Structures are given as structure tokens and as C-alpha cells.
Amino acid sequence: MSEPILAADPHAHVRRPAVGYAMVLAATALWGINGSFAKAALSSGLSSFRLTEVRSTGAALILVLALLLTRPWSLRITRAELPFLLLFGVAGLAFVQLLYFVAIHRLEIGVALLIQYLAPVLIALWARLVLEEPVRRRVWAALVLALGGLSLVVDLWSGVALDGLGVLAALASAVAFALYILLAENAVARRDPFSLLALGFAFAALFWAVVQPWWSFPTEYLNDRVSLDGSLVSTTLPVWALLLGVVLVGTIVPFLLLLAALRHLSATRAGVTAMFEPVAGALVAYALLGESLTGTQFVGGAIVLAGILLAQTAR
To answer: Cα-flanking dihedrals φ and ψ of residue 196, to 5°?
Structure first.
């Protein structure tokens, strides 16, 4: 799944936009790999709920431990922050992941990502209709270009089979993703992005620990071996290794890359650039899984890039 966007670090000294864009694109590639890991893990019979719990808890443990060792004071929480952090962790993090995993379990990964990336459109509509802020025409044009290009990348027009529940989950994930970004933009004025992310995952982990306690975790799945897709179909990995990949490759590393990128880019530019994730996923599938790419898909990727570049010219 496409993963969350936080505000830029105001304390950055030297901004190098090219480095920032490279970091965001690297993060999208890792999220593309994560989709394959997650789908393989789900094929073992592990539920989307349990996979979300593993991802949230694993990320929380690593991020919180890193802050305890380096900046423990940043984890202090005021009583006034508790309701917001609960909403941010549960609605903004736990549910966006859960709904994404449900979607990719029932839909092709590219189709699920295409629907999820309606989130930037929802944010623009919120800004225009609710906050009554002006949204420049080129932003709308950029969003149309990017979404149109994504539809070509996932080959939407060739009669892709759609599952009703999967589509609903992807749409709900788009809403949750938009909510996450709006909450994050509101919160970074009061708290640094790293501790916000760590605490968000911590509250998400606590939520899942209550909903489905860890002592009831189906450990019998962990040593099962499942095969990957495409040219790696003959390769099998134990479920525990796939879960480790989801936590490290699909969560911790790309989030850290994104945090580092935000020292060089604004949150808006990083967010629009992250729309390259489905394209990156298709390229990863081509490079690692041996899946073919058509000329139409290459054209779609170029259109997505054009939309991203157009968005960079607008405020």
C-alpha cells in the first residue's frame, strides 16, 4: 500500500530538491515491493487484520525504541494530545493499512493503488469546498493527468475484473489516507514528524492489541512457506520472513526515506510525487517478477510523471 505523507522539517539547513525527489521515488519503489510481500503473506491464510497488526506493532516497536535511545523527551504526551493521537493512530494509520490490505487481497495491486490515490483529489475538494481555499487550475489538471496515467499503468481499460468488496475497501482506504494527511498537516505544527509517526503507530498497535490480543495470534502460519508471483513463482519464503519484509522494507525504511526527503521538499510536493507509487510497483513487478509492460503502460507512466512535474509548478 501506498504509504502516509508528513510535513517538511522546518529546521532543515540545506535543501536539495533533487535528493528529496530521489528519496521519495525510492520510497515508492519499496512500497511497490511491499505490495508483493503483503499479497504473498495474505495467500498463506493470514488475515488482513493480523497483517495490519504485525505492521503497526513492528513499526511502533522500532520507531519508539529509536527515539528512546536518541530523543526520549520527544515521546512525552500531554493530556490534551491524547484524543488527537488516538484518532491519528487508529483512523489515520490502522485503518488505512487494513483497508489497503483488504483491497489488494481482493484486487490487483495496481487497481487498488489507483483507487487509493483518489486521496489527493479528496484533499483538494476538502480545501476548496470545506476550507474555501483557492485551488489553482493547474493542480486540478495535474491530478487529472496523474490519475489518467495511472489508469493506463494498471491497464484499467482492458476489462480488469473488479471485486465489489475490494473496490469499497480501496475507496475507504482513499478516504482514510486523505484523513491521515490532513491530520498530519495539522499536527506537525505542534510535534516533530518522527515522534508523531512513532506515537501514531504506537496507538495503532495498542488498538489492535485490544481488538485482537497477541496471545491469540495464529502462530501456526509463521513457518508456512508461500511462493511469490511471476518469474519468482518457484521461490518460496516462510511467512515470518515476509512479515519481516513488510515491517522493514515496506514500512520502516520507506518512512525514514520520506522523513529524510521532507528535509528537502514540502509536504505537498512529496505527496504528489508519491503518486508515482503504482508506476514504481509496475516497474518492480517487471524487474523482479518478470511481468510484461505494454507500450500503453509506459505511456501511462510518462503521463503520471508529467502530472507530477505540473504539480511542482503550482502552489
So the answer is: -60, -45
What value does the mean pLDDT of the chain take? 76
Residue 52 in grid coordinates: 495490519
Q: Is 14 helix (H, G, I), strand (E, B) or coil?
A: coil
pLDDT at 203: 92
Residue 5: partners with Cβ closer than 8 Å, 6 or more residues away: 181, 184, 258, 267, 270, 271, 274
Tell me which residue of 42, 3, 45, 10 sits closest to 26, measured CA to CA.
3
Whether 120 and 271 have beta carbons less than 8 Å apart is answered as yes
Rounded Cα distance, 270 and 282, in Å: 20
Amino acid at 253: V
Query: What is the tens place of the pLDDT at every residue in 138-192?
Result: 777 777 777 777 777 666 656 555 667 777 888 888 888 788 777 777 776 677 7
**Helix residue ranges, H only, 160-224:** 164-187, 193-211
The 10 Å CB-count burial string (b at 16+, else e) for 175-188 is bbbbbbbbbbbebb
